[in-house]
Amino acid sequence: MKVVFSTRAFAAILAETTEKIKTETGGLFLGKYKDGIWYVVEAIDPGPKSVFEVAYFEYDRAYTQHLIRKTANLYASKLELIGLWHRHPGSFDIFSSTDDETNAKYAKLNEHGAISGLVNIDPDFRLTMYHVDKPCRYSKIKYEVGDELFPAGLLALKKPDDFKALMKKLSTYKGFDMQQTEKQRKHACLASFMKMISPYLDSYACMNAISESDMDEQKSKDRLIELLLDDLIFFADEAGMEVTVAQHGKYAAVSQNTTEGTTRLYFAYSEKDDQGVFEYGGKNYFYKAGLFKELFTKAVNEKQPDKNAGAAHTNGGGALNGWLKFLTGIKNGETDDE
Ligand SMILES: [Zn+2]
Hints:
Blueprint: E1 2-5, H1 7-19, E2 26-34, E3 37-44, E4 51-53, E5 56-58, H2 61-72, E6 80-87, H3 97-107, E7 114-121, E8 125-133, E9 137-145, H4 160-171, H5 182-187, H6 190-197, H7 217-238, E10 244-248, E11 251-258, E12 261-270, E13 275-280, E14 283-287, H8 291-309, H9 317-332
Parallel strand pairs: 1-3, 1-9, 6-7
Antiparallel strand pairs: 2-3, 2-6, 4-5, 7-8, 8-9, 10-11, 11-12, 12-13, 13-14
The structure holds zinc ion (ZN).
């Protein structure tokens, strides 16, 4: 495992360290984990209201959340918050107990954990990178810098046509009332969908109670819509699943009524945790944009060989077969109603 920084991201760490040479500072990493490599595309500065003391640091949350969204929206591929860095005094290049708490929180965001860097000026600039495994196990890892080390496209910005397509999608998006054909409705059941992805939800389990958002309802709603949009488009366009979304105060409920009953998922946006949370089967899970599509793809890819080999199915195989059949149908154009 290693870290690869874009020249821009690495320059951003150096610039931030230079600017605050007399105090502590830090920042957040936006990028992607792929095949054992953490690609850091952008390093976000901690913001004007950040606090850095010897055993305590806090980023300017409103500022970083804003900048993360703004920056990530520029890129063609989906960037994620993959880690953070901060400076330590002298040659102290291991984590404090406060750091452990923060690192553990970031490790929860991704199934592969997170990366966390420490900068020391002793007397030259020195960066030590760690991989943080869940819940909070550290291993020192190497890093390299260079745009040429990135896989094709990962540093690419969205093209004007991509923006135009997005503008069109968003401006013609009629709330959350998605109409599907009868044929699709028959197949696409939210309850079996959730059953199918549930074995993959464990790493997103959220043990703490959800902290009540300080945001007003309109802001919570906007944030939830932004978070859910990818998966709702996936449900409608690719999975052929009809769901309705309703607003209940600061919560959004995604639900589906079938003859067998109602399946309902509650979503909330936690400003303190800076992420979405949803409830399923009496448990809380963290939610990031596109999570359902990601887990679905994973479930299909992992289970498919079993099916071909004719191996016995575990629980949920029935639902899975239904989905595979359905998806194959889409691919072959059988469910095409036009
Ligand atoms: Zn620290």
